[in-house]
Predict the 3D structure of the following.
Amino acid sequence: MMTIKQSILGILLVLSSGFHTGIVAQEGRVSEEAVNLQKIFIDASREKLLGNYENAIALLKELLKKDPKNAAVAFELARAYEATEEDEKAVKAVKDAIEWDTQNTWYLKFLADLYQKLNRNDEAAKAYERITELEPNDEFNYFRWAYFLVRADEINDALKVYNLLEKRMGVNEEVIRRKHSLYLGTGDNKKAARELERLIEAYPKDMEYRHLLAGFYQQVGEMSKADEVYREILRLDPENAKAQLALAGEPGPSGGELQFLESLKPVFRQEGVSIDLKIGQLMPFIQRVADTGDQQLAAAALELSTILEEVHPTEAKGYSASGDLLYYSGKKQEALAKYKKTLELDDTVFLVWEQAMHIYREEMQYQDLLEFSEKAMDYFPNQATAYFLHGVAASKLDDEQEALSALQRALLMAGNNGFLQMQIQSQLGLVYNRLEQYEQSRQSFEAALALNPKSPDVLSQYAYALAERGERLDKAREMAALANDILPKQPEYLFTYGWVLYRMKDYKKAREWMDKALQNGGGQDPEMLEHYGDVLYQLNETEPAIGYWKQARQLGNRSELLEKKITDKKLYE
């Protein structure tokens, strides 16, 4: 087996083969002095390979004294200086090497690299100018020459270099794009456009180059010229979907959006048109529906997403778009079905999982949320939101230990996401409260409020926890009232305020607030129904109270205390 010493010796022999000395004996035989010089060079190279750069530098300097103007030695000295970050000395040494061997492009390229490191771009450009003279057929040299000229802010000279390159290789897309960018950067839109036109002239059948020109005109606000290019594309390629979509126009006022969406249908029905191109047209309208809840716009956009499902049945994106539109239209169960179909086709996008989990939570389908979030945790083990929602579901199903475990893991993963941290801390406050770990509950709620003192969710949940314990009820009422002021007509906040009043034994007002909660969407929450029954019982309406307790049980409330209330027809607290 070859030893490390033998390996290094082999490398050194290769290096020394490139070392030439001018000291040679008569009749072509190597003199003793030349042998000694070569030995010094090998020693220096060995020291450099071993990382002993100071020793290598000393040996190379000694060698140059004995054999002046040896370009190879000067180059190795420059490399040693560069390794010790003595860049100015490296520059001087390699410039000596270039002076003594004017045709060596490796020395020039090393010098250019040093100049780049020192941000001396104009000098790096001059080095590549010389390299290009020596290697005129290497296209890369022209690109590097122009690159350094651009960095030196010599734009006109860089353009001249690209012109030289074009004379050698003809019209080239890469060169055209670079010249186009330079003209664009200098504000010369006319010349920038002309470069793209030259590309079209060279490749008249390639429609993408025409799209580049049209896109450029759009970018600089010359819409009529852009439309003219798109019309030319359609003259040459009548089925070109990108041009068709571009000429469909922009949605205008008073029904213009609906008309625009209608105009997209023919293109959306074309199987050969990329679904990504179609989704790109649809996305602004999905966002508009999300922002405004415009049902008419949602219905029109949904017609297009349905076409996507039909034309691209194996693509997840069409179903996902339909899911978003249905969700923002308030049709959550229909949206959920679309998201499930999306995941059947592509289960790699966490946002779709997250949206489905939020629907389960909003629809109070906690068993489904528990199972679905567990799958999400398996697929995305580093997504804190999946663990958070799993904890929410477990808590709602009275499995507080499972909830605590999931929430603690979620908190570790939340990182710098302050909003998610706040949600997790508030939920931990509820869980600790139910586990009767009241100090931990207080700390969690206070941590949540520190992140956002005016979060209605945190205020309401903190108030609810205090009401559950019957402690600090004045503070609980204050927080519950503030939550309702910040975000009115939310069933959870309305109910919490009613529950605080109940714990303060103000049963009539408690009923008023709980009535509001049920009227605003809380009628499917088993916990609200149970406590509404409690209020009715306190107001001596026993039969209606039992009816609400039974409704709570039917909707999934399985607490032993609720069963005892129903069986004994009596309130227990």
